[in-house]
Amino acid sequence: MKNSQETMLSLAGEEAADRLISQNLFALLIGMVLDQQIPLDRAFTGPYLLAERLGIALTPEAVLQTDTDKFYKAFTEKPALHRFPIAMADRVLGLSQILTAKYQNDVSSLIEGAENGRELLKRILELPGFGTQKAKIFIALCGKQMGLKCPGWEEVSFPFSEPGSLLSIADIKDKDSLAKVRANKKLLKEQAKSAQNK
Length: 198
Fold this sequence. Notes:
By secondary structure, this protein is an all-alpha fold.
């Protein structure tokens, strides 16, 4: 993927937190893990708060070297990093273990080592907290905003890869697109509910 300095994601809504997830792929993966049953901005501010509370540069190796009690406290101290802080701490530890053992702490090789979209999707699905939809959204985000060059990424992340689809965080670039994605998601939920009631 292209130099992360060139891309500024706009998911946390706070400059320092957005800069971290834009420049640190591991931080972005943590944000993706946390992006479940809490507001989007809170999820993607989480990696910044975690790094701040632990006093470390976020890498899988640094997380694994952190005292376990200190690590869990960073998730649970108020304001907690998630509605389910212990479960999410477990997932981030699991994520760190896989990235250290399988990718030698080199998070970029998780993505750049994949030969094609199918292999990339398979790799992402092996990570804790990533179901099929979340994995597709992550790949679409990397493809649309982070310069992902992996052949076939569009096919494996469809429909989120569709240009201008406004279906997920892959299309959020500012407050305007955030509002459009939220409105679109709300509409789709209402349509699904309406279809169930028929």
